[in-house]
UniProtKB/TrEMBL annotation:
<dbReference type="InterPro" id="IPR042188">
    <property type="entry name" value="MmgE/PrpD_sf_2"/>
</dbReference>
<feature type="domain" description="MmgE/PrpD N-terminal">
    <location>
        <begin position="2"/>
        <end position="214"/>
    </location>
</feature>
<dbReference type="InterPro" id="IPR042183">
    <property type="entry name" value="MmgE/PrpD_sf_1"/>
</dbReference>
<dbReference type="Pfam" id="PF03972">
    <property type="entry name" value="MmgE_PrpD_N"/>
</dbReference>
<dbReference type="Pfam" id="PF19305">
    <property type="entry name" value="MmgE_PrpD_C"/>
</dbReference>
<feature type="domain" description="MmgE/PrpD C-terminal">
    <location>
        <begin position="237"/>
        <end position="398"/>
    </location>
</feature>
<dbReference type="InterPro" id="IPR045336">
    <property type="entry name" value="MmgE_PrpD_N"/>
</dbReference>
<dbReference type="InterPro" id="IPR045337">
    <property type="entry name" value="MmgE_PrpD_C"/>
</dbReference>
<dbReference type="InterPro" id="IPR005656">
    <property type="entry name" value="MmgE_PrpD"/>
</dbReference>
<dbReference type="InterPro" id="IPR036148">
    <property type="entry name" value="MmgE/PrpD_sf"/>
</dbReference>
<dbReference type="GO" id="GO:0016829">
    <property type="term" value="F:lyase activity"/>
</dbReference>
<protein>
    <submittedName>
        <fullName>2-methylcitrate dehydratase PrpD</fullName>
    </submittedName>
</protein>
<comment type="similarity">
    <text>Belongs to the PrpD family.</text>
</comment>
């Protein structure tokens, strides 16, 4: 939750001008707060704007097996809902756990097959997670849950084509997932009935998106008591997760060697196949293009020992030294890494300086449950993102103080959101 807030505050700064213009266009005045945005909006638009803000910084949590971001659409829908309806602390926690569980089961059943067809897993599975989360928060009964799932499935969408070039539309997939998930829950609560089994059959959700499925994921779900939310990762770097192992390796090399940037002859990145498609470009056409690029991310990490949000903005984006080194980075597949993915999402970075070669290998990047971000690292991440967004020290402390309680009180959360 705290991670989501820091990431979304940062995103609100990045998109504030565009969001203000959009909200004016659609006359979205209402009573509901949006993270990092002073103007109150109607319920649907509040969830939509939260979703835009939550994903644009490329710092939101994720699931390496489901290859998507579960938290961004879920919290973006759930927080406005909590302003409209009374949601107890117990129901809030249950809603979060159930929403993560539903979306992660769906994503793991569909991946990597939908990625290979060009679908964005966050837009698709995230819609279902947001819908189930909101329905649980509203104490939906079994039939209402099924209707909510049905409404979510028929509105789930998202294309990976929108990450290409100068496109700024990738966060739109999360915005729609949040808004459609919220509306699915409210439609079900209003009495609209859905399909008996929207997932199955030739006309069902699964068949519409893929001819191949990991059905064992669903069939084995009841065999464990461990909630899937415990297996998410938290991002330390402001780039696509496929870039993180290369960034971490590059920073390690930079921290342990001394070299001049113009002395680097070449940089080679070995990684798994899914990380390469859509992420090996060296022509950087803006912030979003840079966040999707392993070559840019590695070049910036080698030169500045960082993967922070500032690295993906000017003056770095137009820096001749960074761009020149980006052109020297070649990304290739390592078949053994491909075989091990997604259990491992590894990368090896090798740089050549004259006759000397330096390399570093990362099997699982920082933030995975096997290699977790510490509490102090999460506080540092959240504090820096909130500061980037322009929050005062006292406001930042309000946000990070939410980590102090083992049980997140829903009223305390609402009070924090209202006060910022």
């Amino acid at each position: 939750m705290v991670d989501y807030l820091g990431v979304t505050f940062a995103g609100s700064k990045t998109l504030k001008d565009k969001a203000t213009l959009y909200a004016d266009f659609i006359d979205s005045d209402g009573a509901y707060s949006v993270i990092g945005y002073s103007k109150k909006n109607n319920l649907a638009t509040a969830s939509f704007l939260n979703g835009l803000f939550a994903h644009v910084a490329e710092l939101d949590d994720g699931d390496r097996y489901g290859m998507f971001h579960p938290g961004a659409p879920l919290f973006s829908a759930l927080l406005p809902l909590m302003q409209r309806f009374e949601v107890s602390t117990k129901d809030f926690e249950k809603a979060v756990i159930c929403g993560y569980e539903a979306s992660m089961l769906i994503a793991r059943t569909l991946q990597p097959f939908i990625k290979e067809k060009g679908f964005h897993g966050t837009g698709i599975a995230g819609t279902i997670g947001a819908a189930i989360s909101c329905s649980v928060a509203l104490n939906a009964n079994k039939e209402e849950l099924k209707s909510s799932l049905s409404a979510a499935c028929t509105s789930a969408a998202g294309l990976l084509k929108v990450i290409k070039g100068k496109s700024q539309m990738k966060p739109l997939n999360v915005a729609y997932a949040a808004q459609n998930g919220l509306q699915a829950a409210l439609l079900a609560k209003s009495g609209f009935s859905g399909s008996y089994d929207v997932l199955d059959g030739k006309l069902g959700f699964f068949h519409a998106f893929s001819d191949q499925l990991n059905m064992d994921v669903l069939l084995d779900a009841s065999k464990t008591d461990d909630a899937l939310i415990h297996s998410i990762y938290v991002k330390p770097f402001a780039a696509c997760r496929h870039c993180h192992a290369p960034i971490e390796a590059a920073i390690n090399i930079a921290n342990n060697t001394g070299f001049a940037s113009d002395a680097i002859d070449s940089v080679e990145v070995e990684t798994y196949s899914w990380a390469i498609t859509g992420h090996d470009h060296t022509e950087i056409k803006g912030m979003n293009s840079a966040k999707m690029s392993i070559p840019y991310s590695v070049a910036a990490a080698l030169l500045h020992k960082s993967g922070d949000i500032e690295i993906y903005d000017n003056p770095y984006l137009t820096n001749d030294t960074v761009l020149a080194l980006t052109k020297k980075v070649n990304v290739i597949e390592n078949s053994e890494m491909t075989r091990k993915a997604p259990g491992e999402r590894g990368a090896r970075v090798k740089i050549k300086v004259k006759a000397e070669e330096m390399s570093f290998f990362v099997a699982l990047p920082k933030g995975e449950p096997e290699n977790p971000v510490t509490d102090s690292e999460l506080v540092q991440k959240t504090s820096s993102l909130c500061a980037f967004a322009g929050l005062q020290d006292s406001q930042i402390q309000q946000v990070v103080s939410l980590m102090d309680s083992k049980q997140l009180d829903s009223e305390v959360l609402k009070n924090v959101l209202y006060s910022l």
